[in-house]
Amino acid sequence: YYQRLRQLARLIVEFDMAEIKGFDSRNSKKMLQLLSIISQQVPFKPNIQKLAEKSHIHRNTMNSYLIYLEDARLIKMLYPSGNSIATLQKPEKIFLENTNMIHALAEGEPEKGNIRETFFYNQLSAPHSIKASGKGDFEVDRKFLFEVGGRNKTQKQIAGIPNAYLALDDIESGYKNEIPLWLFGFLY
User: Fold this and answer.
1) Which of 86, 128, 137, 183 is surrounded by the most beta carbons within 10 Å?
2) What global pTM score does this model have?
3) Helix, strand, coil percentages for the chain (3-state, nearest 5)
4) Is pLDDT above 80 for 23?
5) By the 8 A CB rule, do 158 and 139 touch?
6) In angstroms, what is the C-alpha Rg of the chain?
7) How many angstroms separate the CA atoms of 138 and 117, rounded?
């Protein structure tokens, strides 16, 4: 299954994206490397300038390529909350589209925090507006704040914030503002 997903990602980058105006197919290998880097991060907080330098792709072209990857549904970009123009230019975090892609593209064992946050973002982004938050991991519909973590995650980061919740992995039932992460799978 994961081999087929890798083949599909490669097919999209090497052939489908080659049909996009402005995409230089000579950079396909670099794009696949970028997907691999994203799959191994915790989650990936981009520095566009450094990414451009490492991949030898111009900074402005890098922004376009990230948009192409998002349009191809290989990645999802999470932008900071707020209304300024700066929030639209640089994503706060970059995730692979879903957890299956992480397992397919990561070399070795994927980081569990990345899997948790990718799952949460993937499940809620279809029906809701999601932004990055300075106090928690995700701001949902400009109303709710979520911090995603494992069973031992504490309330410290969201203490005193109204409408703030913990989405916790490795628990079967919730208590107060602690919600099992698996329940968000029913929202898609």
Assistant:
1) 137
2) 0.87
3) 50, 15, 35
4) no
5) no
6) 17
7) 9
